[in-house]
Amino acid sequence: MLDFIARFQFFFYPLLVHLSVSYHVPFLVACLLPFFYFIIARPDLADGQQKKTKLLIFIALLSIAVFSWYYLDHSIIYLPPILMISIIWYPFVRSVLPNRTPLITRFYQLTKQENEPAEMRYTDILTWVWVVFIALLLVNTLFLTFWASLEVWSLFTNFVNYLLLLTLLFAEWVFRLFWFKRWESPIEFTRQLMTIDQRKLLQ
């Protein structure tokens, strides 16, 4: 149940931020940020050094939230979109380092009964496509953070960026259908994506 709440929150938070910007009360979401972090990171369930690190981050966010509430300041809301894109980007980058299996190739190895060489080469290249694409989104997010209005920043970082991710996902699925001339159910793909063992995928 907690895992479901965390995944739901990952999509719910950007919507809440955009609504707060639209109604000119962004500091309210800034104050809620440490509680969103607590639900996702669950520092109370961690062990050892990881628990200390997560608690320190939570205390830091809580301190900033108190500052935001006191001064009606919303600067902290610029941080989560950068972190979210970075969190998505990191496993892709890590997987293309020497002596590692590209992330999408690893996904297909875990979800397909037969791994054809041509398909594995395709997934190797596709992983690099995602590395570059997400890097561009991260650069765009940083640019908007410093040089765009709050409304434009919110529209792009909380909606357009994620819409672009979904567009690439859909376009690649269509391209793969024509390239390999084999039907792959998007429903089955989504199920595999949501239920795959993250530890095996990221090892």
Please report which band the strand proportion falls in: under 5%, 5-15%, 15-25%, 25-35%, 35-45% or over 45%: under 5%
Shape: globular
Largest sheet: none
How many individual domains? 2
Helix content: over 70%
Distance between the termini: 24 Å
Total DSSP E strands? 0
Topology:
Blueprint: H1 2-22, H2 26-41, H3 48-71, H4 79-95, H5 103-111, H6 117-147, H7 150-180, H8 186-195, H9 198-202
Helix pairs in contact: 1-2, 1-7, 2-3, 4-6, 5-6, 6-7
Please name the defining characteristics of this protein.
about 200 residues, mainly alpha, 2 domains, about 80% helix, about 0% strand, globular, disordered N terminus
Give an overview in words.
With 203 residues, the protein is mainly alpha-helical. It is 81% helix and 0% strand. It has two domains: 1-73; 79-203, no CATH class. Mean pLDDT is 81; it is low at 1-6.
